[in-house]
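Table 4 source record.
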Amino acid sequence: MDAAVYGTNVNAFVLKKNQVIEIVLNSEDPGKHPFHLHGHAFQAVVRSDDDGGVYANNVTLPDVPMRRDTFMVRPNGHIVLRFRADNPDNGLTATMVEAPDELQASLKIPDDQIQACKSQNIPIQGNAAGRTDDLLNLDGANVSVKPLPDGFTARGIVALTFSIISAFIGLAVISWYGAGEIGKRAPKGTVSESAVAEALK
């Protein structure tokens, strides 16, 4: 099966059943991070110390590697994980699709979920675009939102300019109002203090 049928947003890898997979994970983060591989107990064939840098493929592999379902990736370090793709029912679906033909044969989607998709016109068969005739045709598939442009766009510059002008006008009005004389009589046609006091009685 071609990984392209899963769409352009998922960066999918299709794994054959019982294929042995190695993942090289380089951490450029100064913090410790647990790494878990759902549905598999995997081997750590290489594991660096803190600040070990990126994996350089120059390490002698152990005769019997540690086997766990979660490992701590060291700060600014690396780890090389090895697992067998032998668990398609409970395995990877985020970026690796393990034995998809076996998964499709054994997986039963509940009827209420199928009805929920049908009621919203969401395809329940085919590739990422819901196509069953040409699985590599992804026209109509969901795609990621385009990244924001670097710097200001023309629209952004206009909005920023008017915001600045509005701010200066607002400051000018507040300054003008605040600079007025305190205790000055109210102009004719406005409510006087005595009228307010009378109304509050």
